[in-house]
Amino acid sequence: MSILVVGSVAFDRIITPFGTADRCLGGSATYFAVAASFFAPVNLVAVVGDDFTDEDAAIFKGRNINLDGLQKVKGARTFFWAGEYGFDLNVAKTRETQLNVFADFKPRLNDVQRASEVVFLANIDPDLQMDVLHQCKKPRMVALDTMNYWISAKKDALTRAFQNVDLIVINEAEVRQFTQEANLVKGCRQILTLGAKTLVIKRGEYGVLMFTRDAVFAVPAYPLENVFDPTGAGDTFAGGFLGYLASCRQADDRELRRAIIFGSVLASFTVEKFSLDRLREITLADVQERYRAFRALTHFEDYS
Amino acid sequence: MSILVVGSVAFDRIITPFGTADRCLGGSATYFAVAASFFAPVNLVAVVGDDFTDEDAAIFKGRNINLDGLQKVKGARTFFWAGEYGFDLNVAKTRETQLNVFADFKPRLNDVQRASEVVFLANIDPDLQMDVLHQCKKPRMVALDTMNYWISAKKDALTRAFQNVDLIVINEAEVRQFTQEANLVKGCRQILTLGAKTLVIKRGEYGVLMFTRDAVFAVPAYPLENVFDPTGAGDTFAGGFLGYLASCRQADDRELRRAIIFGSVLASFTVEKFSLDRLREITLADVQERYRAFRALTHFEDYS
After folding, report:
1. Residues B100, B77: Cα–Cα separation, whole Å
2. Are B218 and B262 spatial neighbours (Cβ–Cβ below 8 Å)?
3. Which domains does chain A have, with CATH numbers?
4. CA distances from A298 to A99, B95, B205, B287 (A)
5. Which of B223, B262, B291 sits opposite A216 (nearest CB)?
6. Chain B CA closest to residue A220
7. ipTM, interface predicted TM-score of the complex
8. Cα separation, B60 vs B58, whole angstroms
9. Residue B90 has pLDDT above 90, yes or no
10. Do B217 and A298 count as a contact with CB atoms less than 8 A apart?
């Protein structure tokens, strides 16, 4: 099945205690598309300025990524984000945001994009997410991400979006903020009552929790000796997760769990270098090898 | 094999946003002993004041816990701790500590205690930990816990203690504080070079990581809808972990992983009610049922 991702392609400035990187390729749709393309064909819908060069676009080449939806606006600049991490490399503090071309982003899908079976609405205005969804022809699975800003600024629109998707991928703090519930499990159950069948909670260096109506699945993150830049880990996770699901015949509990692992595997590579530098160099064999490492990391036997 | 635990028996005042409990039974040795006694006989060595009643001691009765080492000091009061938790129930802020009888605690082991095959040195002065260890006859496995205070106040003594045990059970922040290394994996490897074969990292609501020379094992905590009081979760974990190991023929990788799960299971019960109220009511069958729930929570298959 093919995947549609609608989100940002950006240039980032990443400041960490271990180094700074400027004009890094970034953006939710970028990380998502590259990760998902390991498993399934991706239709990318995003906008860039004319500062976005062929060299920048090279990240998408030779992969299963259709760039017909990558609109280039002349005389304008690409979305820019600067973020700074502390020693724990946990939460980024935003230092600067320049929306640039993203301010007027109003995606119009073509027929190929509209026919995508799996849709990922990356973190954008929830009204825009719904506008994109309404353009789609009966997708088999729709997932969305969001952020604290939309929970504060557009909670009603976001609630409507939550009611219209199959799968929500958000982080722990967002569950608590949205539900005003201190207990994470109760918060997750509350969100599931809105309509989505699956809720995936990103916990950064602590891994991922998945709630469905019938089951809970939890997996730790892969412990890494070299973590340089957590930027894009969440979108990479979503890409690996939905990419794998798009390659499956059905998204049952068994495949959902495998998908969570593949998402975690891809994300574990992303953080090992700045920007998409590590994703750029890995192969499917590397991904499969780390999947097996995840098994070794987490496996335990029944008691005898 | 029998287990020796040397640590505190205490009265706690627990303040949470959901309620306050006063004169709760607490203390590291208390939680540890009750948890470990599900699997193996325990020799408890601790000290209380004459405010510690038979009713208080009832928690140990009908379990496999030898109380010959529970010294009662006349005219003195039991160790007292008051801690307050915020809405996330994560880290306790200490509001008050009264050492009382604990100030002069200088354990002298009898022959039965000295012959214990497994030794747990709960969080006390590292010099005292070593003093206890020197009284033991060739134990087969020695483990210790510590806290931020000893890392600041007695780092040399603590380093010597680390060099003389098989197993260290500490939390994430303590690894970083002790090693001054931001990356947890590197910090853990650094501590292992001191001599211990196994390092177990407690991560609270995020579960447990275990490092040995050859392997890393990670498990999430059990997601609970009702968390009332995290006090004692770490010592309960240590009790379940070492208790199970004491019941095994050998502590190989397979049994160490099972032990981590049993420790996590016991700890997941502790936090469901104040003090030891939940531990008091559960049976081995409850423990085994939640072990199976942990399997369901974490299991995923190899990719096909």
Report:
1. 6
2. no
3. 3-298 (3.40.1190.20)
4. 41, 38, 17, 20
5. B223
6. B220
7. 0.95
8. 5
9. no
10. yes
